[in-house]
Write the structure tokens for this entry.
Amino acid sequence: MGQITPALDQIAIATDALTSAPKGVVTMTTESAVAQKWLVPRLPRLKAAHPEIDLRLSITAEVMDIEAHDFDLGLRFLRTHPDEGYDLLFPSLVRAFAAPSFAPNASSKVDLEALASGPLIEEATFRLWPEWFSKSGLKEVPTLDLPHPLGALLSIQSAVAGLGAVLMDQHLCQTEVETGALVRLNDVEIRFGGYYLATNQRAGRRRAVRVVRKWLQQETRSGQGVATA
């Protein structure tokens, strides 16, 4: 079977090459935060480049087995690099953000001791604030009063509302930073996991699936790359 699969892939690629444009339905399962804050804002570029491809999203907090549930693609945050079968789209680069009314002005440094005693927002149970304070130069990190995790979307909204500083993957709050709703507190960055794309082995032979996969990879490299078959 191991020898047959590459041959089938080559036949599928050769057959697709005879068609004028990739088309058809491509299904993807992903989580709400990366869908709303990273993927959906980019989809108009996919539609403009490949109008015959219909990308259909299934949003769920559950990590779905794409083979068993018959999805073409799956986009998920993973804390560690999987052994095989996944493409790393982008690493999770966690930084500290806050609303301008909460943060110091551009010419001032963050008062780390005051921040450590102030309201802090957590999006998950990873508890990265102590590491961030240590990397930021706070010699003795006190016991932090960390609230119950809120999830990524609610954490971003809470920070925008001025309810505290938040540690967040910079890819998920890019819009808020660009519009000035959030500002970065300093240059400290924590690399923590990444967002990975899984491709259904059977579906991966279809040209439309391969095009979406390549388009996603190019989006992470260039910001707006367009895939070609």
